[in-house]
Amino acid sequence: MDFGGINPVTLIATLMVTSVPILLAALGEAVVERSGVLNLGVEGMMILGAIGGFITAVQTGSPVLGFLGGALAGAVLSAIFALLTQVFLANQVATGLALTLFGLGVSSLAGQGYNGIKPPATGKVPFGPLADIPVLGPILFGHDWVVYFSLAMVAAIWWVLRSTRAGLILRAVGENHDAAHALGYRVNRIRLLAILFGGAMAGMGGAYVSLVRVPQWTDGITAGAGWIALAIVVFASWRPWRVLIGAYLFGGISVLQLNLQAAGSAIPVEYLSMAPYLITILVLVVISSGKGKAATGAPAELGHNFHASR
Amino acid sequence: MKRRTLLTTAALALGLAASGQAMAQGMDKVKACFIYVGPIGDGGWTFQHHQGVMAVQETFGDKVEIQYQESVPEGADAERVMTQMALGGCNIVFATSFGYMDQINAVAAKFPDVKFEHATGYKRDHANVSTFNARFYEGRAVEGLIAGRMTKSNKIGYIASFPIPEVVMGINAYYLAAKKVNPAVEVSVVWAFTWFDPAKEADAAKALIEQGVDVIASHTDSTAPLAEAAKSGGKVIGFGQASDMAEYKPSPRVTSIIDNWGPYYIERIGALLDGTYAQADIWAGIKGGEVLIGEITEAVPAEVKAEAEALRDGIAAGTVHPFTGPINKQDGSAWLAEGQTAPDGDLLGMNFYVEGVTGDIPQ
Q1: Domains identified in chain B and CATH numbers
Q2: What is the pLDDT of residues A85-100, one digit of tens each?
Q3: Are B303 and B331 within 8 A, CB to CB?
Q4: Cβ–Cβ of A216/B41 closer than 8 Å?
Q5: Tell me, what's the ipTM?
Q6: Which of A186, A213, B139, B171 lies deepest, with the highest CB count within 10 Å?
């Protein structure tokens, strides 16, 4: 069952792995943006998570602790962002960009001496005979735990945002922080928690790059994945399941074009490489052609700081 | 040369003209500036350039002041960085990636008294622009020989960066050397369209391995393809690229192409110090010591190792040229006649595959 020399089962199994970092980071960022905060520092938090997770995993010998370390490193960096934007009311765009630059620099510094070390391996979840089922086996039962975790997080975030009180409050803060404040919700505290969550998710995504996908530490290892995560959030119009589609689309096409080349296909790779971006633009055009700004699904307070005295 | 503010470019031009005069008679102190396309910690291309820079510092001590900037994107940003370097009193600027070619010539036009050196380029639009390159294809031939001998699936892979002559040359040299020892061999080329993106490089290696490739050469800067090959448990081998990448010895890294820039940097900066500097276009290889072949590990059988070393020594002695006719182009038209070796001009502008390589070069 090959198409153009490519086995679709292997392709799907590979793209699920490839998409994990951008999926985790985009999910976190979607939550942050739903609370009305635009954190452009995803790339910085990812790479700090990559080195934080790498160092933790190498020092402790445990890849699970490595992912926790990555999440912690990302959350710590996002705490700086939260302090600057929620307490000192700094401009979110500028602070987010600074966060990326800061994260790249700090990770490079922290990574000195970790070049060329192999991290402990993250094994596949043992499903026993299930993994040997043709077609379904490699796709559903052939992955490490982080792949399943990322899928579970999609469902969890979707459920929390849609059906729980916490999700409703978060959305209220993102749509109209004055009204939320008038109702007695602590806008900045809620946003702080959302930012920390986003940082932890981005950090975990970064750790996946350095612990599983590449497995090694190299300066600048995330190489722009954080920016793709930001694009996916917009592509998904801030909805968790669409984030999943977006992440698999971006990840899938990147894998597909490499596989097509390796298989000697005649399809020009440039078109495939730009396809996700073209689709993002198309999606934006389509969804924003509707009823004004609300139609894009963007949280109304996205990027606006809140101060109670106003 | 202490200037608090530079209000006009005229004042600047004067200042530079003054320093330019001193240059002709040699200088007491040189400020040498470098722009890198990736981070120093990439373990490959940029790392090796930085090794060369450190050798410069060691040789000249406080007679040379070093400034460098990492991860400068190819394109408009590079022009800004180089302009800043020239304004900041750099006497010589080394730009260490092919994609800086147009920018370096543009900046050189504005600062006629600053020397510019461009790695792997060929444009010297102004008298103050020199180019330097290394004959990496000589190393590719050694890799290709090992690939042809070692492959069990008869499929060898090449992770290419950008469709520029240097990379096409590498693919051709790799394939020709492999085919010479193993006529059944096929090469799969994957264009990554990046110099440095470890995750993508790993994905490219994975895609090749899924297609049955068991020897992978890479033209990108990081060690990620080797890390991916290492997961195969010895079934897939690869090569250190630009740097020795010794941490992946003895397998998957079975040998490596090491770029050795230090001697060139020392020579050029030395020439600036003693006043003998002149515009140049350098293209040295294994013979000149700019390209070194890393240790061939025990994962390679002794007779293959001996064969590879003989090829290396032959190239160094000038008795073997990786591009020796008869060689046809991919479309079957003749390129080199029997016994003819490729002229440098053909190589530097190479935009075609040789016969036997499948696929098209992206335009």
Answers
A1: 9-135+261-284 (3.40.50.2300), 136-259+291-348 (3.40.50.2300)
A2: 999 999 999 999 999 9
A3: no
A4: no
A5: 0.77
A6: B139
